[in-house]
């Protein structure tokens, strides 16, 4: 059934592009087999290959990793620094980890633009030091839906009743649902979309992060966080663009198809402005 949805979406003649899209952050993560950390010479080569798009080097310090030293549980803390390169406007970045490549942007326009950035990053990585294979491809779209709401029940005007039906529940005669969060998984371990959603307040993506973004004033919003993924089964394919491109489009279209089911026509007409992509 999930593959049928992918095939149906791939054959659609037109897809909506929203000029007033609610995307706060878009991330594509390509996980590959573990490699040694890139040395200074390899990092310099990466920067040279990507400098026309990502001219700013801004290394990223990863989270601390506890490495056990003996059986009694003593450990030490190891910090790793990953090469990271950003656009001059600080809206888009590419990070090269020992186990993957991450491209993230707060200025998403269309899937073909992000796909081109991923292609550039993959080809640069292969030119410098090629990993043995790919383990996972994931695209994450974090949407902050903002609209005119006075009560939690008002979200049903903008968001599908499949998600906002919780607002109809109540305890006693007057105590209705005020807030809810949920998660749903579509597909299986090999291919699918994980949806996280709920009515929240403030921001899903911090406005003062490394990536610059245009933000609305803090307030109520509806979170639609879609993680569309593909993992190989059972063999580990080589890391090359031929293997990646099709999987990227399938994952992007799957997330697109689900998003379209989660918003109402009223939201499209009154909040979003759209045109079509061939």
What key phrases describe this protein's structure?
single chain, 278 residues, alpha+beta, 9-stranded antiparallel beta sheet, two-stranded antiparallel sheet, 34% strand
**Beginning-to-end CA distance, first to last residue:** 25 Å
Mean pLDDT metric: 87
Spatial strand order of the main sheet: 3-8-9-10-2-11-16-15-14
DSSP, total strands? 17
Unreliable residue runs: 4-13
What percentage of residues falls in helices of 4 or more residues? 25-40%
What is the overall number of helices? Answer: 6
How many domains? The number is 1
Structural class by secondary-structure content = alpha+beta
Q: What's the helix-strand series?
A: HEEHEEEEEEEEHEHEEEEEHHE
Query: What is the C-alpha radius of gyration, as a whole number of Å?
Result: 21 Å
β-strand percent reads 25-35%
Main β-sheet description: 9 strands, antiparallel
Large-scale geometry = elongated
List the helices and strands and how they pair.
Layout: H1 2-10, E1 15-18, E2 23-32, H2 40-50, E3 56-57, E4 60-61, E5 65-68, E6 75-78, E7 81-82, E8 84-86, E9 92-97, E10 100-105, H3 111-128, E11 134-145, H4 161-164, E12 170-171, E13 175-176, E14 181-187, E15 191-202, E16 219-230, H5 241-262, H6 265-270, E17 274-277
Antiparallel strand pairs: 1-17, 2-10, 2-11, 3-8, 4-7, 5-6, 8-9, 9-10, 11-16, 12-13, 14-15, 15-16
